[in-house]
Design a protein that fits this description.
The chain has a single domain, classed as N-terminal domain of TfIIb, CATH 2.20.25. The protein is 16% helix and 27% strand. The chain has two helices and five strands. A hairpin with a 2-residue loop joins strand 3 and strand 4. The chain is globular, with a radius of gyration of 11 Å. The protein starts with a helix and ends with a strand.
């Protein structure tokens, strides 16, 4: 079974209200990677079991 099958879906209503904790800017959901992307901050926040982990220390830096 693929990792995608193990990804719990993210509630679209949650995505509408979440913002990047660093920039307060919008986030994009990358379901395949299981991350919320903040282009403005250059960070990707993990989503684990359908729960966004909105901690800057947990975020991955995006490649330039």
């Amino acid at each position: 079974m693929s990792d995608l099958a193990h990804q719990a879906p993210l509630d679209p209503r949650l995505l509408e209200i979440l913002v990047c904790p660093l920039t307060k800017g919008p986030l994009e959901y990358d379901r395949a990677a299981g991350e919320l992307i903040s282009r403005k901050a250059g960070l990707a926040y993990p989503v684990r079991d359908g729960i966004p982990i909105m901690l800057i220390d947990e975020a991955r830096k995006l490649d330039a």
